[in-house]
Design brief:
The protein is of the alpha/beta class. It has helices at about 5-60, 100-110, 125-130, 150-165, 215-290, and strands at about 85-90, 115-120, 135-140, 170-180, 185-195. α1 packs antiparallel against α5 (about 215-290), α2 packs across α3 and α4 crosses α5. β1, α2 (about 100-110) and β2 form a beta-alpha-beta unit. The protein has a single domain (about 20-250), classed as Pyruvate Kinase, Chain: A, domain 1 (3-Layer(aba) Sandwich), CATH 3.40.1380. The chain has a five-stranded mixed beta sheet with strand order 3-2-1-4-5. The two termini are about 35 Å apart. Helix content is about 60%, strand content about 15%. It is elongated, with a radius of gyration of 29 Å.
Length: about 290
């Protein structure tokens, strides 16, 4: 059995850890409330814009606009056919359970299944892990989630759009964590570009008149769609990260409390054993003197 001093030192250490994890849980809970408000406010606009551009795609299925048309048949892409891009969204920090590892595992599987691929990492944890496993990373963005600035998001989305137009990818997919609740995050793989049309039974049969012209409207809507869709995914990931961190720190705090109780019981037993030993020694000494 460990001596009493070692047990007391360990109890103090675990109590300090418990204070840290509890504080981190409270901070994550505060950030989660703000992140929830942002994503709840962003979803209606993003959903409506998504429906609008996908409706336009359905009604213009034969267009040669690269944002709407399938790129496989484009003459400019013959030498780059079947090349895809993957955007991987993770957190910049850890201590959030399996939040990052699940995304990295899904991204690794995707990369293994695609020979011709470029990878774009948003989030330090994903970049740090994937750069050890693949040389396909062409862009990476770190320390975004500290500020959550839409202007920075627009820079990212413009770079993504330029890569799509210049390199002629067959498609660009995104893997990210979708926020459901503080204890539930879903890993989502979604095609960002080219835009996927709506199902025929969802599309309004109303004919559209374009002003100033169809190509200008499609280009403007397409650019705004990429901006808003990436912003939405980043907001989803941010809220999911804070929920995962709050849950992880709550579990860590509970585990620390259980460990403190176990160590306290061990400490009491060690003290009782030490006291019993001392009593026996004193009684034995007294008996030896009396003889």
């Amino acid at each position: 059995m460990a001596n009493i001093r070692d047990i007391k030192n360990r109890i103090v250490s675990v109590k300090n850890t418990k204070q840290i994890t509890n504080a981190m849980k409270m901070v994550a809970a505060s950030k989660l409330r703000k992140a929830q408000e942002r994503i709840i406010n962003a979803r209606p606009y993003a959903d409506y814009l998504d429906m609008m551009i996908r409706t336009v795609k359905y009604k213009n299925i034969g267009t040669d606009n690269m944002l709407l048309a399938d790129t496989n048949g484009n003459e400019n892409n013959k030498n780059k056919a079947d090349k895809v891009a993957l955007i991987v969204i993770t957190a910049d920090r850890g201590l959030c359970g399996s939040f990052n590892s699940n995304i990295i595992r899904a991204a690794q599987k995707y990369i293994e299944n695609n020979q011709k691929i470029d990878v774009i990492c948003i989030g330090k944890k994903g970049y740090d892990q994937l750069k050890k496993r693949t040389d396909k990373i062409v862009e990476h963005y770190n320390d975004f989630f500290n500020e959550m600035d839409f202007a920075v998001c627009r820079d990212i989305s413009h770079n993504v759009l330029n890569l799509f137009l210049q390199k002629g990818y067959t498609k660009i997919d995104v893997i990210f964590n979708e926020f459901k609740s503080a204890i539930q995050q879903n890993i989502i793989q979604k095609q960002l570009l080219p835009i996927v049309p709506l199902e025929s039974d969802v599309v309004s049969q109303t004919d559209y008149l374009y002003e100033p012209d169809e190509d200008t409207i499609i280009n403007e809507l397409g650019e705004k769609y990429v901006d808003v869709e990436i912003w939405r995914m980043l907001l989803e990931s941010s809220a999911a990260e804070q929920g995962a961190r709050m849950t992880a720190m709550d579990n860590a705090t509970e585990n620390a409390l259980e460990l403190i109780n176990e160590l306290t019981l061990m400490h009491n037993r060690a003290r009782q054993s030490a006291i019993t030993t001392e009593i026996i020694e004193i009684a034995s000494g007294a008996e030896a003197i009396s003889e």
